[in-house]
């Protein structure tokens, strides 16, 4: 960390005080992880949703509550660092404001929704001598750590090519990118940025070399008015074919009533404000999540591929799709001495020399691929807190500067998709 803590009354020199800006799913998860660490205290939260505030306050009753992040940023600094997990479109303004106020920042991905806004955030960090860590949690998972260990040991020789798949899942896609908060490019930029910028970041991390050229193809192919089943309605609650539709909001959100602590319950909380039959039915009848998935005013692509050429002719292809079961990411790495197949937990190494396959289960290290991003959340917070205590920003794996490289690839890929061109990146 660069910024010293002279303006924040932190008590013991090793204690760390955090403020949370945006207490939705990711802000809540980071705060909960951090609060379990010795000497870490959550002292403030800025969140405008009353239901979300109540949920947060039940875990952190001593935290000061602000309705607007601007109120917190305008005060003398009352914490050592701030976790910024607002909707993507607000990242630029909030990050610049908190950097100017002297806070070190843990910033949820993406950095921002335009190259210019990303540059502004990086410039603000440098100008004010603060550190910004981007939450590219896939770099921190036990799976990634083991994979990197194998690659550095030469398990498959030199990597020549990577294939990587993110199967978003049809229900998750409909919830977030058709009916939900990331359905429109005017606020979320692109599906690649909103959902998969950390996949692109992960590929650069694994390949260990810069991207030179990128191409991309993708479109909104299915979640469109012409795909609506015959007899469909504008809302699932009044639809004659709801019971046979794979994207029924009625079935999807009512499942949250019977699954406490699950993703289904959280999705119901997001759409209804509270998980009760009355609230869910009211939201289905009047809210955005009750709309037909084919009439939702969405414009995000529902399937996309990205082709990347790295230095020395190394290649990677990335596919993201709505048309899948919700499952772990799938990866194949092709090397000069072998092949690796992985799924976020299991790693299978085939050796060209011995013709044998060795399998590693990274769940043995204490995390599975679905829980806290396979241990990535905890490892990220551990590194962030250690850097704050030791004033060592150079130790951050996903600093703003390191993360900008992969964001530039994402923006170039979206340019390539929209123009049909192969886009070159600066060397």
TrEMBL record:
Positions of the Gfo/Idh/MocA-like oxidoreductase N-terminal domain: 16-134
Annotated TM spans: none
Domain named Gfo/Idh/MocA-like oxidoreductase C-terminal: residues: 148-424
InterPro entries membership: Gfo/Idh/MocA-like_OxRdtase_C (IPR004104), Gfo/Idh/MocA-like_OxRdtase_N (IPR000683), Gfo/Idh/MocA_Oxidoreductases (IPR051450), NAD(P)-bd_dom_sf (IPR036291)
GO molecular function: nucleotide binding
Family as reported in the entry's similarity comment: Belongs to the Gfo/Idh/MocA family.
Name this protein carries in UniProt: Oxidoreductase family protein
